[in-house]
Amino acid sequence: MQLKKNISLGKTKIFKLIYYIFFILLFSIKLSLSDEGFVEIKILDKVSSKTSQLKLNIQQETKFENLIIKILKCKNSEFDDDPEITAYLQVQDVTLKNNDKVFVFNGWTFSSSPSISLFDHPVYDIWLTKCY
Hints:
Layout: H1 2-35, E1 38-45, E2 50-57, E3 61-64, E4 67-76, E5 85-93, E6 105-110, E7 124-131
Antiparallel strand pairs: 1-2, 1-7, 3-4, 4-5, 5-6
């Protein structure tokens, strides 16, 4: 009788251990998904020469001064020694009253080479700094 009790006690410990491991894995996956979805950009106001750093949610519009900025996608390269950060960015200028649906900028930006896809605005410059 004593042997059967020990076997059943061992089975419940194994099931509890599997349950805890599953819970920890599920929780860590949820944390990794919640950390993704943010982009950090720097905005230079050319008139006042002030730089602002913003942390933006992906797929959410954010208003900064006269600009409405929306990040659609963001990706870190995985194969380089010096990782490249790319993001798909849409920018609207609120002061342009002729057509609110036209973007001042709509395209991919690159952290290491912002001049490849140039954001050309008379007042602001935007640089991509982080994606997570």
